[in-house]
């Protein structure tokens, strides 16, 4: 069993980079949730854990401690970039450590999968002294998936299928690096049925809905999307491979007073 610890960058009181009406913490969570679904749905002998499943504040030390305690085989930290550039880059720790060669191999597999799947400029395979790369006892890679302050890349981040493509590319790279075998009945990435509990033009209203759902015991997250130049925020309370499971979730939500629709992509 290969244990993959997925770290959606930032969260809670730390929004990460903010630009073009988007918060980094929302994009990283959406990619991470989609990556988890892709790995579990498409591959055998893989387990996943998320550093956060919703909009929680989790310190860097808590994230690496959780991965170390779980004895993960791989730590993937998902971010989006800012600062006036464009394109994709990945990082491993710049220190000297025993499994650096193996970490390099894994990173190259992930990096190449992403740069070949996505039409983003390749900024290169880099090294840095980031906490999550340094303090993890397993191979660890951090990805910076486009620039939130770049007009065209922010536009991409508002497309749910782009989020899924980024996640899928991560999954393919991880599968390649760890020789994960595909599930025979589902070699191709499958359609997901997402339960959408409201789409808002006002981000504060979307976050209020997430809070209402939380009070009723439903974890949800925000998925930005763009339609005719207008930015909307969808609240997603579950993503399912089987339509009937999405319908079950929809009925449960209805009994709690939440109207929803199913988004099949
Ligand atoms: Zn970040």
UniProtKB/TrEMBL annotation:
One of its GO terms (molecular function) is N-acetylmuramoyl-L-alanine amidase activity. Gene3D superfamilies: Sporulation related repeat, Zn-dependent exopeptidases. One of its GO terms (biological process) is peptidoglycan catabolic process. GO terms for cellular component: outer membrane-bounded periplasmic space. SUPFAM superfamilies: Sporulation related repeat, Zn-dependent exopeptidases. Residues 187-265 form the SPOR domain. The keyword Hydrolase applies. CDD domains: MurNAc-LAA (cd02696). Keywords: Hydrolase. The keyword Hydrolase applies. This is N-acetylmuramoyl-L-alanine amidase. It comes from Amphibacillus marinus.
